[in-house]
Amino acid sequence: MTALAQWFHRRGWRDLIIGIPYAWLILFFLLPFLIVVAMSLATRTPTAPPFGYGGDNPLINPAGYARLFTDSLYLRAFLTSLINAGVATVLCLLLGYPMALALTRVSKSWRTILLMLVILPFWTSFLLRVYAWMGLMGRNSWFNGLLTDLWNLITPQAWALQSIPMMNTNFAVVLVMVYTYLPFMILPLYANLERLDPALDEAAMDLGSRPFQVFRDVTLPQSIPGIIAGGLLVFIPAAGELVIPSLVGDAAAPMIGRIISDEFAQARDWPMASTVAVALLVLMVGPTMIYSRFQARAEGAETDGAKP
Amino acid sequence: MTRRPVFLITVLCFGFAFFYIPILSMVVYSFNGSRLATVWGGFSTKWYVSLFSNRQVGAALLLSLQIALISATMATILGAMAGIALARFRRFRGRTLFSGLVTAPLIMPEVITGISSLMFFILMAQWVGWPGQRGFTTITLAHITFSMVFVTTVVHARMLQMDRAIEEAAMDLGARPWQVLRDVTLPVISPALLSGWLLAFTISLDDVVITSFTTGPGATTLPLLIWSKVKLGVTPDINALASLIVLTVGVCVALAGLVMNRAEKRRLAEERLAYRSNE
């Protein structure tokens, strides 16, 4: 222990520095979370607040968890969420990977400006970025008109459309998710690709590889940690998304975030909302573990590299 | 490689078009004379006029800024403490739980954070009589909690990079612990504190989901106001509001870029000067 750390320890500052944020997170994060877990096992009652626990009701009521599997509403919502988030993640990767790679190839001064332009939409309101697409996808918008003209041009006359029905579909949800989450994919990929040694590319070229082979055999395998980090940074928030499906999504095929919110606020069924929430968290645990393991490995590699 | 990566540059251009066309379209249509938000009806600034005469918007903006200022400041203090604790105190009781608690809010879906906070506040009101009414206080508490962990991540990373030998050197040269903190540690982590604060500020200013769950009567933040309007469809005055926000953000980011650029140049010049005086 260094002299500074010893001094901290002696004066009791150490306990304060650990204790204050610790206590805060226990009170305002852990306790609410434990309430959700306990609530998922409570029974719904017509009281206010609308739940019973113990007393006349069973102490542990697993009915909610049983309903998850018997009521197809929940299974369908989970499936819709996983598919929408999965498709959005793949599209983000397909668009974000070449963009990140391109950013490593432009000159230093351009790179700063372009990176700024990737981050800039982040700083404008998330809600307004979703809203911008509501304007573009509406039936009378210039964008929809343009796409409709294109469609009518390339398809036989029998398929001609007045406008393309984009709003309130899963297509709209995926499109807007790709739009809002694309920077989450580009930035970690860029950070990963930027560190790669260009000498390896050149060596492969000198040995007769064609550009695509260099990409496939040299660049791509080295960028897998970036792909995983970016993919999970898109997938995890996308799967639990509430705002985007509420504004542009198909109300008949809700995503899981919508179900949680509706069970809670509209049906006033706190136990069921909590059950669905716990189920969503359980589904998230797998991807998160992968992410933190890769993160730890990347950090480990970095500190190893820093050692002389 | 001398070959120009034509494909990559094409995708990059397409990507930036994808990023900015919706925003540009929103700005253009904010000057639309027509009541129908998506049909062009001549140039007009009437939506800006109606926006500025709308008291609700001003009040909501003020409330959002107040909440963001308080919660970002508190989040920076608490988050920095947690970051320092994780980076400096390698072993303490409950460290595993602690590091779990500072990562979990990062990946928790916002809906779940929202309903858990709301249930917590309602049950607390029933059990201990606090908080009496939901609104400003409950929104701020929820914002502090979920934005402090972002500050922790930034500060923790910076502390791990820091060379601890310079602190020890300062101690050896006779600096007192508080002086070391003030003159050595704080300047090193201050960029992390600043970016953490900015991150917490924008997270708070932008949040819809958690705010909508923890709000109460009369506490309408700007995102909540926009949310309630946008749910009903596209309205022209939101276009005007969005354009103003984009303009503000753009100007701030450009200014920050200029300031950082100049500071970097000055630093390089000073370094060069220092080398020369050493020769």
Describe the structure in your own words.
The complex is a heterodimer of chains A (308) and B (279). Chain A contains 14 helices and no strands. Chain A is mostly helical and 308 residues long. Chain A has one domain: MetI-like (MetI-like fold), CATH 1.10.3720.10. The longest helix of chain A has 37 residues, at 270-306. Chain A starts with a helix and ends with a helix. Chain B is built from eleven helices and no strands. The chains are: A mainly alpha (308), B mainly alpha (279). At the A-B interface, helix 1, helix 2, helix 4, helix 5 and helix 6 of A face helix 1, helix 3, helix 4, helix 5 and helix 6 of B.
Q: What is the CATH architecture assignment of the domain at 55-237 in chain B?
A: Orthogonal Bundle
* Uncertain stretches of 5 or more adjacent residues of chain B: none
Silhouette of chain B: globular
Largest interface: A-B, 90 and 92 residues
Oligomer classification: heterodimer
| Content of β-strand of chain A | under 5%
Low-confidence stretches of chain A: 304-308
